[in-house]
Amino acid sequence: MTVTPVRPSAQKHEVKDLSLAPQGRQRIEWAGREMPVLRQIQERFAQEKPFEGIRLVACCHVTTETAHLAIALKNGGADALLIASNPLSTQDDVAASLVADYGIPVFAMKGEDNATYSRHVQIALDHRPNIIIDDGSDVVATLIQERQDQIADLIGTTEETTTGIVRLRAMFNDGVLTFPAVNVNDADTKHFFDNRYGTGQSTLDGIIRATNILLAGKTLVVAGYGWCGKGTALRARGMGANVVVTEIDPVKAIEAVMDGFRVMPMAEAAPLGDIFVTVTGNKHVIRAEHFAVMKDGAIVCNSGHFDIEIDLKSLGAEATEVKDVRNFTQQYRLKNGKSVIVLGEGRLVNLAAAEGHPSAVMDMSFANQALACEYLVKNQGSLAAGLHTVPKEVDQEIARLKLQAMGVAIDALTAEQIEYMNSWTSGT
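-> structure tokens emitted (428 positions)
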């Protein structure tokens, strides 16, 4: 691969307020206490410099946990630049600290409009990245649609989310994914923990911070029973909510039933729910016919990646008044006299109204991201175009390091057991 020299941009950052940096640094350091796996990787990267000479763009939620990923990559020699993957997810103090204290260019502000978000994607591509860390595949999609001439510079990309993987598969099926992409989302040490335990806890955290509502005794409808839906349903039940699940997949629906949840179509759940959470990755899961039959004061929010799961356009068309009633909480007064409460503008409620996943779970997710980037560099030129899984040995090593940090020991196979597992002659 020939790396094209790039003239440094005169604009090194676009953040809300650099004076927030001291607060951001304090929170970044606090998060680091819960991220021992990434810390070990960061220390090794600082010694080995696997990304020396590599231009890297990360499109991620700008949080205290992402800060540690960015720092690890920079310490590993990367010429790194960070933009937000969601207009409402940026923690402005963290963005300020990354610029002021760690020298990492950041282009992200909480509440940035769509035009600013798109401009930041263009700034990221102006960096002419060799590696892209994506969260939803917006940067990769823009690269393919608008910057075809830069694909020659690209070693590969990594993707963090279920939504992003769906988009990458569609790109591959359309014949436009002409470079390697590592599917970080499907690593065991990512989706079993980040999607389930992280989303479950942080979604409820966002709902509670936005509304101060008591979950006990409420009917909470979870749309989608993938790993994110499982985690949300589990945590909601743990706080005393009566959980209803809606699904389109019969296998997942059976799983939800056998996990003890009521399962029904959204049309039946809509009049029952006090709170609705969408975690499907699909479009207009809650729409006009559902809003029409909801209880007065029903709360709707999203914990899927994009703001398309709740049909806010149809809700707005039926509203006679829309007003802010709390931070990240809007009340839509409908023509039928009822109101519907929308959290976080239909964007990720856990990041719009709260702080996202706990550091301890992001430790494993971002360890996967860091090692996936290293894998791309080590295998530059030998990986075929298309999706690649995180190598099993990397997944296992992350789990081993996490257990070690937690002070948990496990058994190892004996020689006799290994022999038995590799033999076909032993029977009844």
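The first strand starts at residue 55 and ends at 60.
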